[in-house]
User: Which sequence fits this backbone?
């Protein structure tokens, strides 16, 4: 029969006892760890809890800012979309405008010279009438003659040499002051037909013209109501009077009847009998 030596038996018993003791020690360490190690564990748990609380607070604090950023992003997206829509609309509008311009150019190109002149004359007449209406209703326009006067509507009446009357004649005593009806730049001149004359150009380019003066002042800027000359009978005038014209836009060939304007603002005057109207 085989026998185990006593040495091996003793070594096995010792090993078994050592394993059992180690397991018992491990269980005791887990159940009741050393005091220093327990402090470390407690500190780690506390730090973890504090970190969790800080993370929660940061999340709560950041939530409104995040919501605001998201709202701004949505607004930016909507603005971008609206901008694209407006850009498309404006682009289409410009395209339509170009097409209309091309159509108008084609229509004008097809007009005869006579038709074109007729359209231009009609447009000029409408603009001129609008200018007269504007001055009739003005609260700042000043009557040209600063004194007693007589006038009537002699616009378009025949004159010597086959001419027609391109203004009206305002009769007044020799030397009666003439004033600027509007602010503007006044320039004086002298010729055989009109004698001593003035051109008053306003800021918008309109021209007021008067002639047959007895004397006048100096060229330059004047305010409304400033004396610029005096009634006379220079040139080919018959009787003391001022021949008065209105040219909207300053065009020499665009004199229009100033009678409605004079009638609206020259309250101290009265309509002159036809027999008293000067011939020039």
Assistant:
């Amino acid at each position: 029969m085989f026998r185990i030596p006593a040495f091996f038996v003793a070594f096995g018993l010792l090993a078994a006892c050592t394993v059992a003791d180690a397991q018992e020690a491990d269980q005791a360490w887990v159940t009741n760890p050393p005091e220093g190690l327990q402090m470390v564990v407690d500190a780690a748990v506390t730090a973890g809890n504090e970190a969790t609380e800080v993370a929660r607070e940061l999340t709560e604090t950041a939530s409104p800012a995040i919501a605001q950023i998201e709202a701004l992003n949505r607004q930016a997206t909507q603005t971008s979309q609206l901008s694209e829509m407006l850009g498309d609309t404006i682009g289409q509008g410009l395209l339509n405008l170009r097409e209309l311009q091309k159509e108008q150019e084609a229509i004008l190109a097809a007009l005869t010279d006579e038709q074109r002149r007729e359209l231009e004359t009609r447009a000029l007449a409408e603009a001129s009438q609008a200018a007269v209406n504007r001055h009739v209703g003005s609260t700042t326009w000043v009557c040209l003659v600063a004194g007693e006067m007589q006038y009537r509507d002699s616009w378009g009446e025949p004159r010597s040499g086959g001419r027609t009357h391109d203004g009206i004649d305002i009769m007044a005593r020799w030397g009666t002051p003439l004033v600027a009806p509007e602010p503007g730049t006044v320039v004086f001149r002298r010729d055989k037909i009109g004698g001593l004359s003035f051109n008053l150009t306003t800021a918008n380019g309109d021209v007021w013209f008067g002639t047959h003066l007895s004397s006048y002042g100096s060229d330059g800027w004047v305010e409304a109501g400033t004396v610029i000359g005096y009634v006379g009978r220079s040139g080919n005038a018959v009787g003391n009077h001022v021949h008065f014209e209105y040219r909207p836009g300053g065009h020499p060939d665009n004199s229009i009847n100033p009678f409605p304007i004079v009638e609206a603002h020259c309250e101290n005057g009265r309509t002159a009998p036809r027999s008293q109207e000067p011939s020039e």
In short: DSSP finds four helices and ten strands in the chain. The CA atoms of residues 111 and 117 lie 10 Å apart.
